[in-house]
Amino acid sequence: MKQNELVTVESKYKFDTRSLVSSTQSIHPLGGKPPVVRYTSLAWNKIKHLVKTCQKEVGWFGTVEKNGNMYLITDIFVPKQTVTGAETDILPEDLADIVELVEDPEQLYYWGHSHVSMGVGPSGQDEDQTSEYLEHLDVFIRGIYNKRGESKVDVYDTAVMLCHQCVDNKPLPSLLSEEEEKALDEVIKEKVISRTYSTPKSTYSYPRTTTQPTNFKPRQPATVSALTRRQEKKEKKKRQRLAELGNHFIKRLL
User: Fold this and answer.
1) What's the rounded Cα separation, in Å, for the pair 111 and 155?
2) For residue 221, what pLDDT is reported?
3) Residue 117 CA from chain centroid, whole number
4) Mean pLDDT computed over 225-244
5) pLDDT per residue over 63-92, tens digit each?
6) Do the bridges between strand 36-39 and strand 169-171 make them parallel or antiparallel, or are there none, so unpaired?
């Protein structure tokens, strides 16, 4: 991107942020944990629509809120600009119009633009433009996107002289509205049924004890004579019964 009428002075910040892999480059020999960049649903959907719709390079600026190690892009604003397939030109007065739209201009330190169908590696103009912005900002975020869904987002922190390249960036999950939550609760009541379980009866059988009481007397097997006496008693009862039935039958005949 090229911006007209900006004062061009040689920057004291020297860096090379053309890497396409996640890394942290020190402008000054200091270390640091790389930050992450997140987008609100509003900002992310605007960015996606701009990249999808515009067939030439397009640029935008955005407001940022910092929370610990996270930078949140809350909203983006598209200034008036002249575009080609490889660059955008924004006049100072058009950039000033964007500043007037923002409630807190100090939060306006994100610059994003589309490379259309080309790669997301920054051009020489992108590097020069970033260097100029760093002359006026302590923290600056640059994002480059294309129609293939690729992105390269870099965070520059001049306070600690660090440049974080290809930082993790993605939209925050959007929250449900109160009405959407109530509607989902009704679906849960209607379609989510709790299953109840009954305790199964135990089928376990305890083994018989082999311990015998002290007064236990094992049954003796029957002898031959005992079996004979039992059999004789059964035969005697059988003959008596037959005799009774015979007498009863004869009386009926008479």
Assistant:
1) 11
2) 59
3) 29
4) 76
5) 999 999 999 999 999 999 988 878 888 888
6) parallel
- Residue 147's SS3 state is coil
Distance, CA of 9 to CA of 14 (rounded, Å) = 13
Q: List, in order, residues 6 or more apart from 83 with CB less than 8 Å away.
A: 54, 56, 57, 58, 89
pTM over 0.90: no
145-173 as b/e: b if 16+ CB within 10 A: bbeeeebbbbbbbbeeebbbbbbebebee
Q: Return the domain boundaries, the chain.
A: 23-171, 223-254
Name the burial class of residue 107, with classes exposed (0-12), middle (13-18) and buried (19+) by CB atoms within 10 angstroms of its CB: middle
Q: Please, are residues 159 and 137 in contact by the beta-carbon 8 Å criterion?
A: no
Element (H, E) at 245: helix 224-253
CATH number for the domain running over 23-171: 3.40.140.10
